[in-house]
């Protein structure tokens, strides 16, 4: 076996610029900060307590549902480091994160940083003390993130997210980081919140001025969240209708300064459905247009959630809700109803994450299980389509199956099964290699076909990456003029010298726009792919295959990896196309 077994790390920390750090943040972490179930803290990593292994239970520390502080501090520190190196990049990334992604916890963290960071439009004076100009006001981007509204969109901050921005900034370790960065009074005991209180009051005022919007949030289950927001921001409503919609009884404060909502309140209360028949409950739901979240806690125990009640609630459920509730719909027999089945199948087509793979484990029907796997494939397809919408991208996957992959090849297979079904078959070229290359072709563009294609791969032999290129070229693979070629290698990159692989790309006529490595290591690691990218002067990215166990991470990683740069670089430092896309994102502005 040809070896380059030194464990070579990426660029040294001191040489990693803001673009490299930002790409690493996106490729290397799922940014999950809040969890709704008990967990375990195992050396700073969160694991669900219910599914933890004996080893994790032995070494882990129990944590309650809510914010997982170690992950929050790590993510915020990464964002802060990027901001310190390039505040403008962070401003564009915050705008990108809100408007172009569904990464809810990442939006909260970037918003928190933008609201509190130091560029706040301060006057800059000349040598004579006169105001020469004003500094950039990046805090206004944080405000715009909170106030951004897009009807029926997930790409804005929900009420919980607005509240979580403050909860994140109040964490002692994050407050310390902000003080050390100069974002707050170092002597103050209070956590720096920047403009959060001001913008939270604006957000609440906009909902109070539009009572149907406020009522809609209450129906969606946000009543207690809105109360917490109002308390934390010190919001003073313009009229008592705000308290009435929230069913929030008021009393005079100790200082006696309250003037609104102290008398004459007609509180809107949620009544339970005790004593009502199933038909009466359904009639009430239809007349009041109640949502699923508003109903489930009010159902009598002797009635429960019946097929009829669930059918009436279906219009209030999003496509994401329908996918998550597949086991419930199956148990109630509703998926046998043509209209419900049609709506559910439409929801499968619009998947943006791969949670359906986990849901599939909880259904009895093999047909439904296959459909949920299809939802996972669709999430990958949608991500690929979005990333390649602006240009013709061809992708080569080179899969290392040499002897050094013994013990790691199975992880590679699982990651590839989650990824490959997302690509149009005519633009995807796959080859496995040891010292000889073998072209692989799935029988169909789905997870089952990819698993079947990979099933026979066994780790053995030496390592020559160029053998995969030779096999593809011999098979007639050519890249059309004008198309961009992204090469993704799966393995430990322990093989021939990187300059040899670069020469092979040139010899076979493959002009590479970007390279990536899906790191799957059983033992030592080499540097063939990274060195090759440097020789070709193209962007290089890497992500560990373990990341793909996270159902949200596959679409994110695909978008970042497939954004080839607009033009090939001519220096040794080449910015990825994804970072270019971030920088092209218009900065958010307060309306």
Automatic annotation (TrEMBL):
Residues 394-517 form the VWFA domain. InterPro entries: VWF_A (IPR002035), vWFA_dom_sf (IPR036465). PROSITE patterns: VWFA. It comes from the Bacteria. Gene3D superfamilies: von Willebrand factor, type A domain. This is VWA domain-containing protein. It comes from Pyxidicoccus parkwayensis. The lineage of its organism: Bacteria, Pseudomonadati, Myxococcota, Myxococcia, Myxococcales.
């Amino acid at each position: 076996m040809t070896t380059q077994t030194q464990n070579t790390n990426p660029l040294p920390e001191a040489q990693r610029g803001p673009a490299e750090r930002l790409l690493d943040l996106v490729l290397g972490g799922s940014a999950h900060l809040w969890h709704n179930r008990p967990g375990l803290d195992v050396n700073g990593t969160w694991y669900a307590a219910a599914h933890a292994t004996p080893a994790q239970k032995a070494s882990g520390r129990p944590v309650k549902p809510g914010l997982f502080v170690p992950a929050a501090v790590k993510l915020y520190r990464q964002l802060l480091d990027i901001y310190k190196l390039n505040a403008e990049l962070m401003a564009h990334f915050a705008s990108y994160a809100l408007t172009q992604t569904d990464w809810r916890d990442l939006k909260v963290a970037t918003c928190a940083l933008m609201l509190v960071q130091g560029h706040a439009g301060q006057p800059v004076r000349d040598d004579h003390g006169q105001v020469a100009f004003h500094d950039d006001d990046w805090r206004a981007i944080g405000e715009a993130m909170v106030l951004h509204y897009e009807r029926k969109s997930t790409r804005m901050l929900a009420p919980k997210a607005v509240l979580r921005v403050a909860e994140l900034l109040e964490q002692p370790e994050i407050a310390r980081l902000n003080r050390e960065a100069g974002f707050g009074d170092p002597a103050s005991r209070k956590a720096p919140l920047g403009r959060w209180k001001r913008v939270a009051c604006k957000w609440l005022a906009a909902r109070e001025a539009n009572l149907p919007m406020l009522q809609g949030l209450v129906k969606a289950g946000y009543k207690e969240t809105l109360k917490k927001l109002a308390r934390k921001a010190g919001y003073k409503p313009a009229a008592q209708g705000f308290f009435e919609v929230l069913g929030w009884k008021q009393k005079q404060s100790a200082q006696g300064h309250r003037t609104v909502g102290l008398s004459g309140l007609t509180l809107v209360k949620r009544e339970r459905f005790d004593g009502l028949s199933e038909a009466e409950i359904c009639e009430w739901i239809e007349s009041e247009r109640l949502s699923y979240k508003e109903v489930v806690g009010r159902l009598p125990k002797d009635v429960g959630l019946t097929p009829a009640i669930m059918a009436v609630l279906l219009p209030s459920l999003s496509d994401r809700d329908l996918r998550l509730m597949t086991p419930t719909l199956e148990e109630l027999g509703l998926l046998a109803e043509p209209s419900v089945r049609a709506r559910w199948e439409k929801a499968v087509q619009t998947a943006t994450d791969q949670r359906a793979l986990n849901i599939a484990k909880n259904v009895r029907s093999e047909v439904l299980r296959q459909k949920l796997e299809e939802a996972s494939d669709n999430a990958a397809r949608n991500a690929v389509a979005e990333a390649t919408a602006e240009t013709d991208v061809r992708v080569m996957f080179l899969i290392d199956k040499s002897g050094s992959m013994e013990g790691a090849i199975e992880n590679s297979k699982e990651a590839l099964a989650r990824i490959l079904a997302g690509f149009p078959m005519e633009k995807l070229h796959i080859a496995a290699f040891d010292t000889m290359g073998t072209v692989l072709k799935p029988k169909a563009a789905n997870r089952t076909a990819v698993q079947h294609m990979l099933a026979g791969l066994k780790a053995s032999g030496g390592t020559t990456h160029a053998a995969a290129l030779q096999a593809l070229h011999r098979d007639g693979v050519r890249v059309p003029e004008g198309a961009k070629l992204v090469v993704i290698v799966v393995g430990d990159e322990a093989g021939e010298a990187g300059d040899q692989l670069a020469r092979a790309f040139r010899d076979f006529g493959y002009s590479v726009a970007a390279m990536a490595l899906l790191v799957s290591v059983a033992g030592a690691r080499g540097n063939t792919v990274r060195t090759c990218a440097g020789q070709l002067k193209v962007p290089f990215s890497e992500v560990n295959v373990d990341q793909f166990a996270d159902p949200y991470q596959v679409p994110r990683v695909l978008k970042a990896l497939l954004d080839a740069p607009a033009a090939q670089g001519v220096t040794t430092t080449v910015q990825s196309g994804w970072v270019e896309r971030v920088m092209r994102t218009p900065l958010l502005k307060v309306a």
